[in-house]
Amino acid sequence: MTDPQENPPGNIPPDLTLDHRTGWPSDLRLLVERYPREVWPTHPNLGELSKFWLGRHDMFRELNGALLQASDHLKEGTVPAEEFRAWFLPRIRFFLQQLNGHHMIEDHEYFPLLTQTEPLLSRGFDILENDHEMIHEGLLSLQDAGNGLAQALAGPADRVGFAANTMSNSLSGFLKSLNRHLDDEEDLIIPILLDRGEMALGG
Which residues constitute the domain of residue 175? Predict the structure, then answer.
């Protein structure tokens, strides 16, 4: 499978792909400089839809972090395998399903509406869609690591440590990429909604 990180679309320079960028360039910071993060919580145009969307992002950050912490505890042998299995496996399934569904809604509904609303930032939404392809690859890797860990937990105890280490490494790398994506996505979208109101998303 082609890696979108190695071969991004022609209008996306390599330094703006997910694992290489450190934030938005100046042409995509037009609105976030007008509406920096510190004004978001009290701005009158921060409506219920925006708050819900930001809340979902916070949930993904927190759950990814909690899954990473749990896998580290298993790797270190500080949590019983059966207790870990009961807590971890349903939560990682929920995380994978919910994040994938969230991105599908963004790609097919929110991003097209927002691109029409603020064409000057359309390149940013192309970059975010490319992020979603990278994140999808990461989700597949996490799913494979989760399946391997589930098999290890059902087998001999000496297999658990290696599988837990693989899971921990996968979650750690994924969390770094996910945080970059969520931060940049918020910095692009929330200022549009503050500037135009939630009618930009049909709210």
Answer: 25-201
